[in-house]
Specification:
- Helices cover about 0% and strands about 50% of the residues.
- By secondary structure, the protein is an all-beta fold.
- β5 and β6 form a beta hairpin.
- The termini are far apart.
Length: about 120
């Protein structure tokens, strides 16, 4: 059974930092493409960043230069380091995983990030 469990969300002031974690079980996350998505109130879920099994990363323009995705193979965990946070980063952040050639089939339950101005 595949499980993705996010943690690390919370309330932070604008300009602050948070690090989200996504602990995977039932899969070897380094063999999957992993992603962080977010959904703000009243908005569609959007991709924030992805990392492939080969380690290639991609970022949404809105977070490029501020957010960093990384993985710890030994811990089977993916991280999202978020710096210089803005109020518009406020959302529920979700971790997702997919095999090559398929869509994101595995999702975590989400963690709330709130950035106050």
């Amino acid at each position: 059974q595949v499980q993705l469990v996010e943690s690390g969300g919370g309330l932070v002031q604008a300009g602050g930092s948070l690090r989200l974690s996504c602990a995977a079980s039932g899969i070897i996350s380094s063999s999957y493409s992993m992603a962080w998505y977010r959904q703000a109130p009243g908005k569609q879920r959007e991709v924030v960043t992805t990392i492939t099994s080969g380690g290639s990363t991609n970022y949404a323009d809105s977070v490029s230069g501020r957010f960093t995705i990384s993985r710890d193979i030994a811990k089977n965990t993916v991280y999202l380091q978020m710096n210089s946070l803005k109020p518009e980063d406020t959302a529920v952040y979700y971790c997702a995983a997919k095999r090559i050639g398929s869509g994101y089939a595995y999702w975590g339950q989400g963690t709330q990030v709130t950035v106050s101005s």
